[in-house]
Write a structure and sequence with these properties.
The chain has 98 residues and is mainly beta. It has a single domain, classed as Sandwich (Jelly Rolls). It contains no helices and seven strands. The strands form two sheets. It has a four-stranded mixed β-sheet, with no helix packed on it. The chain has a three-stranded antiparallel β-sheet with strand order 4-5-6, with no helix packed on it. A hairpin with a 4-residue loop joins strand 5 and strand 6.
Length: 98
């Protein structure tokens, strides 16, 4: 996931997300406007075995992507381009399996 401050967009890149060769259109980068609130964005991100969902500023923008990793994900990387970003708060919760 990448936040572009100058374009005010969030993108998700699934070109190297695992199994992507079943369709030539699957490996893609999706982009959405961020709808800042006083110059800030608040993100809630949910990651499970085959999907990543991002809810920005309490649902003002939403992104969902299917992914098919070959191994479980162990790293979350968040970056900003085109400006400065400050991570003010980060909470990580495990989802319970049945």
């Amino acid at each position: 996931m990448t936040y572009n401050a100058s374009d005010r967009t969030m993108s998700m890149d699934r070109t190297r997300s695992g199994i992507v060769d079943f369709s030539e259109s699957f490996p893609a980068v999706t982009v959405a406007p961020t709808r800042e609130d006083n110059g800030k964005i608040k993100l809630r991100v949910f990651i499970d075995r085959s999907s990543i969902e991002l809810f920005g500023n309490d649902g003002k923008f939403v992104m969902t992507n299917l992914v098919f990793p070959e191994d479980p994900y162990t790293t979350l990387r968040i970056s900003a381009t085109g400006g400065k970003a400050k991570l003010e708060n980060l909470k990580i919760y495990s989802l319970k399996t049945k």
